[in-house]
Specification:
By secondary structure, this protein is α+β, with helices and mostly antiparallel strands. It contains 15 helices and seven strands. Helix 4 crosses helix 15, helix 5 runs antiparallel to helix 12 and helix 11 crosses helix 12. The longest helix is centred in the middle third of the chain and has 15 residues. The protein binds a DNA duplex through helix 5, helix 6, helix 12 and helix 13.
DNA sequence: AGGCAGGTTCTTA
DNA sequence: TAAGAACCTGCC
């Protein structure tokens, strides 16, 4: 399927933005993207101001992928809220204008960001992949010939022992993952029901989960529930705030899109402070 | 060899 | 209520 839109979209920027960990770059800047129990090959070409997105997937999943990429949202409109005098954000946003906040699954985000604590991106990627091989299902074959595994269901994850989880290099996070899986499976935690809560209540509810603190909860709110105002503060964003916003970040000004601004800041700052 | 990486929990004052 | 230590693992 081809999709043309009047916005700049940069798959590489998205793949490296730290919101998704199952994008694999292949030849010609084409990505194999796995989300939940689906996968697609996605590439982008450019014509003037337009981006042409090409998605190769099961026909019945066309809508899933256009929504996944958040193609219905205008990010240039969001960027137009950036104040001229906010030079650092302006620079970051200009530089990272191809980033979008994907529509990802709350369950997958919950587990992924529990995994993420005190890990760098390559380590997170490796863990998520090991988890998927250990408890996911084969859903197809990549062009490379490798099997593609779905992200594990709560039931499948709950079925793993602590030893199985440790084998995925989860370390002390194994017990968090196990508990989260058991709670979701048993209905103690109803991730669908949480979607009815407002941002603040949603964040608070997620913080109740074992192994989920303020930062991870914010990532789940932003990436799993697509609440674009959520603003996760990790060590990188902490540095941005200290260096560039000593008087405080203008949250009110950028509401309800603070999370989008956070992504621009995070991606740009991290790349320029390697 | 020791420190640190996109945090959270547990312990201690 | 708040600071500090401990926590798995892999990589520099």
């Amino acid at each position: 399927m081809r999709y043309i839109l009047e916005e700049y979209i940069d798959l590489k920027q998205i793949a490296e933005s730290g919101q998704c960990f199952r994008w694999r770059m292949g030849p010609n800047n084409e990505y194999l993207v796995i989300a939940g129990d689906k996968y697609a090959y996605i590439k982008a070409d450019y014509e003037g101001e337009s981006t042409i997105i090409e998605i190769e997937c099961d026909k019945k999943n066309d809508n899933f992928w256009t929504h996944y990429l958040d193609l219905e949202t205008s990010y240039s409109d969001i960027r137009s809220k950036i104040m001229k005098k906010d030079r650092f954000l302006g620079l970051a946003a200009d530089n990272r204008s191809g980033i979008r906040i994907l529509n990802q699954d709350p369950w997958e985000m919950l587990i992924t960001f529990i995994v993420s604590q005190r890990k760098n991106i390559p380590a997170i990627t490796a863990c998520v992949e090991k988890l998927s091989v250990a408890a996911g299902q084969k859903i197809g074959k990549a062009r490379s010939g490798e099997d593609i595994y779905s992200f594990p269901s709560p039931e499948a994850l709950a079925g793993l022992s602590i030893d199985d989880l440790n084998a995925c290099s989860l370390g002390y996070r194994s017990k968090y993952i196990k508990r989260a899986a058991e709670d979701v499976l048993g209905g103690m935690t109803d991730l669908d029901a949480l979607s009815h809560l407002d941002d603040e209540a949603l964040h608070a509810a997620l913080c109740e989960l074992y192994g989920v603190g303020v930062k991870v909860a914010n990532c789940v709110v932003l990436f799993g529930y697509h609440r674009l105002n959520a603003f996760p503060i990790d060590v990188w964003i902490e540095r941005v705030l200290t260096e560039h916003y000593p008087e405080g970040f203008p949250f009110k000004r950028y509401s309800p899109y603070c999370g989008v601004m956070q992504q621009y800041l995070f991606s740009y700052y991290r790349d320029t402070h390697k």
